[in-house]
Amino acid sequence: MSVIFEWVPRPLALLVDGTFISDNETENAKLAYAHIISKASDMISNPSKSDQVLAAISLLESAVILLQRFATFNSPEVISFQAELVTILDSSLGHSTTLNNKLSALAGSGYRLSYLKKTVAQATLGTLNALFTAFPECVTNSSLEKLLQVLSTSELSSVQLVLKITLKVILTTLHSFANRTEPKVIQSTLSLAAQKMLDILDSSSNMDSRSVALVLKTFKELLSHEKMSSVITSQDIAEPLVNMLKLKLMESEWDIRDAVIEFISFLFQQPITDAKIYLALEYELPLLVFERITDNEPYVRATALDALQNLMQSKEGWMFIQRNQHTRRIASELPGMLYDTEAFVRRAALDAIRCLVANRSCEGMVIEAVASSDQKSLNPDLVAARMDDPDSSVIVRMCRLFYDLWQLHLHESEQHKRSRTDNCSENGDTSEYISTFYTLKGDYWIIEATNATQRRVRAEAYDIIRRILNEQSSINTPIHQANAKKRVIETDNADKDAVFLEKLSNVDLAKLKITSNPEHLFQEALDINAEMMIHSLEPSHPGDDRNILDCYN
């Protein structure tokens, strides 16, 4: 019906036979609107069953499209339409109205009446949202007050679907205010709405995780708005919000803690804004993320590690980590996360380690060249276990980590060479440069990944080898140069690099690409001659068809 109302030039002619049709499309829209409103009003005024009230509200929502075709925000039709919706909403709020009395009579029992009021509220709020979206200028302070009243009614706001649509309409209302009112009006209006949202988080100790996530999602939307974000970061709102986040992190339900960590992670996601960064850093919210890396629940640990990645990938977040000297603490804890029983935690831990490597800040991470029982260190045993991980995504991430370590090795070896002068060598300085890439046998595992049973791992190995060789071919200077003045350890590293690159160049990349690409398997299936296969299964003797499938007989 909505499509009919939007596109058909004479919508009423399709609904009612023999009606008067005007040549004016605007007039036709008015006639159709009047007809729909009349039908909906009759169903609401004299309902024989509760379904009629819900059907009438659905008709009203469709009628908004007709309103858009001929009315403006100050048209009498729009004003009366909004008043009708507010009256219906009052019945769900328990106000003494004619409709409320009729709903009580239709529902009978208290439980059915409560359910009916919630359903009516949800439908009415959806229609209000459609109206405010179509006519933003018709939003008034009284409209917002009515919505906040719904939010304050625990019987309604405790229902997830009602809360979701209520917050959606509030957002639509606030956007309307922000786009057409003075900053002072925006601040007072938004402060009131934000305080109400914090109140329901505070008063509803039994609020489920999804409802908490819905409220936090609304705050995300507000923080993403240029004008409204400044109100959220003001002390009057920001402090209660942060206190509420800390309180919710103490909840026994893991998914509530997960929702809070996800909210903090959002503050460091693109697009980065001053308001998001200010809220996160002014109140030291990253510290809450650090505490949850070792949470008892795997999902929370994974979300905290994802948040840590966003933190390290943003300039402001990385500066916070370094300024507060948390780099060593983070680096020391991440290797232990690779022993986690859940694959998604191991994946997130590897991604976080890659962020540290990309930032060239692995200090604090224990890296051992020999097998070790220390679960806080990166060592050959741990690397071998992860390269044989039952989850192929973990192995793929390990391969990417080796590539990052190779890039780090090239950078550090070049830096080490530059820092050493011929004079230092002559003075007997024998400090060695230890490559993490070779310590963890990255050269061996990249080659080994080309023979992996998982196609995804082979494909990743192909990409990494091709990338390394392409990067190396673009370097004009050779890796290994015979120079008597170079220190022995530098020559050894150059030899290792040369051997490693030679092994990579010996890999048959064309064959590896073919075996890593599944398209040829599908092509083989498409190229099968079905008729030939059927005939080849026909028995030569009557008794030979016992093992042939019925579909070939």
TrEMBL record:
The keyword RNA-binding does not apply. InterPro entries: ARM-like, ARM-type_fold, BRAT1. One of its GO terms (cellular component) is nucleus. The keyword Cytoplasm applies. It comes from Circinella minor. Keywords: Cytoplasm. One of its GO terms (biological process) is DNA damage response. SUPFAM superfamilies: ARM repeat. Belongs to the BRAT1 family. It is found in: Cytoplasm. This is Uncharacterized protein. Its main location: cytoplasm. The lineage of its organism: Eukaryota, Fungi, Fungi incertae sedis, Mucoromycota, Mucoromycotina.
